Sequence to fold (593 residues):
Amino acid sequence: MKKVFGLLVSAFLVLGMMSTSAFADAAKGQKYYLKYMKDGSGMNGAKFATQHTQAEWKTLFDGKGEKFIAEYSKKFPGLDAFLKGEKFEKFMPDIRDFCIEFASDSGNVPSC
Amino acid sequence: MKKLIAPLLIGAALSSAFGADDSLKQEIEALKVQMAELKNAQSKINIDALKAQVSEIKAHDAGDNIKWTVDFRTAYDVVDYKLNNAPDQDNGIWTNKLILGMASQPADNLVFRGSLGAYKAFGQNNMESSSMFQSFDWFGTQKPSDSTIKLREAYFIYTGNMGDVPYAASFGRRPSVDGFLANLRNDNESPASPTSHNINMEFDGASFKFDIDKVTGISGMYLKLCLGRGFSETTGSYSMNSSGGFSPSYSDDGETPDMDLVGLIWQIYDNGQYKVMANYFQAWNVMDINPITYGGTGNIVFSDVGDLTGGSLGLQVNGIGDGISDFLDDSVFFLSYAFSKTDPNDVSKVWPTGYNGMLGSNDSETGSSIFTGVQVPGIMKGQRLGVEYNHGSKYWRSFTYGEDTLVGSKLAARGDAYELYYILPIVGKNLTAQLSYIYIDYDYTGSDTFFGWTGTPQDVDTVTGAVKTAQNVRASLRYRY
Fold:
């Protein structure tokens, strides 16, 4: 039993060194939406994300998200300061993933 | 002869070549016409309209079927127990756990969600021969047994608005395991419904949720009324009565009463960083093994021993500070307090001495528990390290039978419990590995049992064979999609 577990722990450590996982995180995007954007938009994350299709979100977030910033600063003036600030630039990949994950054509079913 | 044939052949070849040239010209002309037609047709195509149409079709198709998800884990668990005045026990167990999730949304205001689960120990199909509680409804997909697929969740949600108050009504088998706080150690992004500090088990019922953040102006505030039935009193079909005949189908069995629970979950605040959750519940007719039938016939029958009240208040900070460092921004801290209070029936005239009341007492007893932990980024990007601690008092009782541990619920412990875990993504979040270690140092017996005499707290240092400490080490690989 100890040998089996020792082998598994060794494999775990090797996996830890080998794993490459640079990825944006939709869950973090949801958190950032809730923290920085929900009050400004006045709608919950699920409703916000279903405003566009996945392809549309991808277009809006192209580059540094200039099109997204332009559309949503105009639509929700309360978001202007956040969208044009450093935090949005930093969190944009996660917010982008969140919007795409729950887009109107994502097929994602909201939970209760 | 040769002189005649040669000119004839040359003539035939030349005429054939001239014919081919004409045919080629005709084909080229035809192609030119076709090209012109195609160019004309292409100029009339509205690319934007097509894109919109494709999106519309995609959106329709995306919602026009049941969405399946797979959550599969292979794990090796080592369990180790130190017993009082008895030899230590340990074991290594390989398990496979499969959860098939399903969801559909036929209309904007109607959602169905469900999941089926099978959690098995390698090569095992008769665990019930050594444990008659193995197939209990409260943890069917949370404790390893055999390969039987069981219903873990199945419920629909109907949503609407009452003025500025969005509401959701839901009936079915509840999303009641891996709730708020337990979702961190279980590496689940979205917590299930209840606060896992005091409720983490499978049951059937209903819920009614009211989002009151707009009317109160408090971010994220909602109230959710939860109803559950943890046991149904019924004989089932074709049960035999004492005279050898059949009992009427699904009538009362006269022994084990319906066990019901009403609870209120109150999300006091949630702004994405700070989340405060509370719950309060009342459970009626909680049960334990009836010692008379147990001793007399060998058959186990449950009986009502009383009612139980409980509640909790928890804070989760998702991102410590604001922009102090990436490490703190990505760290999670939580602290939770919970209590339980018994209200025993008077069964002293029926049950033998020593088996009365609740948790070994005829008086109302209050128990309490604290639960705290942190989860921080690991060494490589995407990896997570978590540390948790909880302490339960002498009469602490929780509904955490569905906790994902093999040594029993750590949150039910009357004593101290520690956990250390490390999660690493291998193929993004689709394939992850997790290593975890739980250490429970019990003060009293009866931590994770029923609500009557089996839950009597006795000093573990005075009872021979009592579990003094328990350890559970788990190494697992998990596939999700």
